[in-house]
Amino acid sequence: MFLATQASQSRRVRQRTHSSQSDDTEYTTPPSSPGLTQSAGSPGSVVSVATPPSSPVHDSACVAAGDRAESATEYAAKQQQRSWSAEGVDDIVCEPSVPGIVVTEPSGSHSDRLTRVCGKVFVRGGVAQRPPVSGEGFDDIVNVTGVPLVFKPEALEQFACLLGCQYPVLLRRRHGFGLTTFVSMLSAWLDLDYDLLNDPFISLIDGRTPSAGFHAFYVLELDFLHLRDAEDVDAMLRKYIHLQCRRLLERYGVADRALWLDFEPTSSARPEDYIAWLAAQFHALPSTLSADLFVIIRNCDTFVQGYIDGSQILYDFLRPLERMVMGEEIGGTLLVSEWDDGTLAPCAGRKFGTPIRPRPSLFHLDLECTLDLTHHPAFQTAIGFTAVEIDDLEHTLALGLRRDCNESPRVADQLKQKGSWGEMFADEDWYRNQKTWTHDTERLHTWDPSPYLEGLGDGGASAGVPVYSARKVMEMLRKKYGFPLLHRGWA
Questions:
Q1: What Rg value do the Cα atoms of the chain yield, rounded?
Q2: Beta strands 217-223; 292-298: pairing state
Q3: Given pLDDT bands bounded at 50, 70 and 90, which one contains residue 78?
Q4: Most CB within 10 Å of its CB: which of 221, 331, 346, 383?
Q5: Percent of the chain at pLDDT above 90?
Q6: How many helices and strands in the chain, by DSSP H and E?
Q7: What is the arithmetic mean of pLDDT over 417-433?
Q8: Which of 372, 383, 381 is nearest to 430 (CA)?
Q9: Which residues contact 227 (CB under 8 A, 6 or more apart)?
Q10: Strands of 371-372's sheet, edge to edge?
Q11: Angle at the Cα of 383 (from 381 to 388), degrees rounded to 5?
Q12: Stretch 349-369: mean pLDDT, rounded?
């Protein structure tokens, strides 16, 4: 397992200068949070968690050249010089034309604290002013005053248990459910590029020991949605990955160590070659900077739609990537998709323990060496909101707006009255349905991940808890508390 070792903790890290975009008015994470007792987070109570001046991860940070301690002032000055814009990437921004929405700016001095208001709901500044808006990912929410975040660290802990299993993993949820924002939180957790003086996780985990993978990886994020309208998918994929690898080196401040990326991509180089070269470059860095590469691919199967050769191009790229993970050339890969492969729609209104009856789908991603966690019981409540979390969100917003916390009807009840079914993704037969997880040695693919999988979950306590779409929940909160609706037909 890749642990957050002293070597990884002491390397010089950089402030996250990019903002992970969210898919909607949504943000997520899973069930109960150990260490956050109900008495401390009960309705009406406000527990303040101070953000320390520096993260323990950075207390021993040093400059690679000279091993000299770097002051906070010097560090901040260098970060200002190193910040860059993700040019060419279609960033999602808040709609300026939506009336009545005031997007508050992050506190420049970071004097506002991330405060736990109710249950698992945190708000910077302690007073909720509005729900999140489109375009706000994890980094945006935790750095903006007055926007609530539901933080459930079990999702991070469950995912951390899989680091080192030598298999890529796949997660699916429908658009609007909150998958994109969950992934942005996971990326921030893994990334060794973060804010030295204001690491939100130090407040969110409330003094507990971080799980494996905490700020331990170079993270390459790809989004195949940018390739959707490409005329030549193969050439565009090669060009896109080449560009993202070069930008990643620039963000981490090591672009001068990989001059080969300055050359234009050629048809002789495969897209996966750039990732392999990038990972090798990170391994070749000095010990204070060396770390594994983790690859996150959003909308991983988007460009197979509408292209005759799209699926073949996708397989030609993903299968070598599988081999890189299994060969430990890269630290891991997360594939993310919002495309219903026929197994998501049947989860609406389904009861735990009943079989999932897949519906016909035009395309099914068939990767023999990838663990599909979409229906794993440990991730049932990782994305979307449970009824208890909806109540906590409503209570937090009502307190901030000085409204009656017990004002009827509850948003959770309104969802049910409007026919919104709680969704049950967990499949009791997940283990038996996995081709890669088996004790049958004839079917194993080089490495048996079962030791990593058998310990996942909380004994089934959260596996039978239904979850609701984050977009539906947010729109219902907006409607009840007088905020403009952002998505027609959702509330």
A1: 22
A2: parallel
A3: very low
A4: 383
A5: 50
A6: 14, 9
A7: 87
A8: 372
A9: 233, 236, 237, 240, 302, 303
A10: 217-223, 292-298, 332-337, 169-172, 371-372
A11: 50
A12: 88
> What are residue 429's phi and psi, to 5 degrees?
-95, 15
Nearest alpha carbon to residue 110 among 124, 129, 131, 120: 124
Please count the CA atoms within 13 angstroms of the CA of 274 that sit on its side-chain side. 30
pLDDT at 243 over 90: yes
Is the CA virtual torsion 229, 234, 236, 242 positive or negative?
Answer: positive
Which residue carries 């239904």 as its tokens?
466
Output the six-digit token pair for 75.
């560090």
Which DSSP string do the residues of 383-441 spell out, in sequence order?
A: SSB-HHHHHHHHHHHHHHTT--TTPSSPHHHHHHHTT---B----TTHHHH-SSS-S-T
Measure the CA–CA gap between 163 and 171, rounded to whole angstroms: 15
Concatenating the DSSP letter of every residue in 56-102 gives GGGTT---TTT-----HHHHHHHHHHH----TTS------TTSTT--
Q: What is the C-alpha separation between 383 and 392, in angstroms, rounded?
A: 16
CB 3 within 8 A of CB 120: no
Q: For residue 30, which amino acid is it?
A: P
- 156-209 pLDDT, tens digit per residue, is 999 999 998 899 999 999 999 999 989 999 999 999 998 878 899 999 998 788
Residue 22 tokens, joined: 């969210």
Check whether the bond before 409 is cis (ω within 30° of 0). yes
User: H/E element holding 295?
Assistant: strand 292-298
Compute φ and ψ for 388, nearest 5 degrees: -65, -40
Helix (H) / strand (E) containing 337 = strand 332-337
| Amino acid (one-letter) located at 298 | R
Residue 368 φ/ψ, nearest 5 degrees: -70, -25
Residue 255's identity, in one-letter code, is: A
C-alpha–C-alpha distance, residues 384 and 181, integer Å: 10
| Residue type at 80 in one-letter notation | Q
CA distance 426 to 353: 8
pLDDT single digits (tens) 21-71: 444 434 334 333 333 333 333 334 444 444 333 333 333 333 333 333 333
Among 133-142, 257-266, 381-390, 423-432, where is mean pLDDT lowest?
Answer: 257-266
Please write down the long-range contacts of 279-282, taking CB distance under 8 Å and 24 or more positions apart. 279/324, 279/329, 279/330, 280/329, 281/249, 281/254, 281/257, 282/218
Q: Classify 222 as helix, strand or coil.
A: strand
The tokens describing 42, both together, are: 């009960």
Q: Is 486 helix (H, G, I), strand (E, B) or coil?
A: coil
- Residue 341: pLDDT over 80: yes
